[in-house]
Amino acid sequence: MKSLDCCLTLVCHKSLEERLVDHMLEHPEWVQGFTVTRVEGHSRKEKLPSVLEQVRGRSQRIEIRSVMNLADAQALIAHLRAAEQNPEIAYWITPVTEFGRLL
User: Fold this and answer.
1) pLDDT the model gives residue 68
2) How many structural domains compose the chain?
3) What is the pLDDT of residues 72-90, one digit of tens each?
């Protein structure tokens, strides 16, 4: 079993949710599971597509988190970069020192 040593976080506009989820579901060899959370975001580089978002100064976004193996996270990012090439998708990888289930 691969070590689950990092957490990959992806953040994008809510309109991209299904596309990103589909990419993750297409690669069970990399992604064992993930969590999707609705969030709001602001960035100087961000495009605010709706009038409401422009007035509020932030957009409705989703955050997808997956605890996974570092090499698999990097492979998924490379895949997404080739498939999507979208500057609206931000990501970061953080170390996970321990992961388990309360069984």
Assistant:
1) 97
2) 1
3) 999 999 999 999 988 889 9
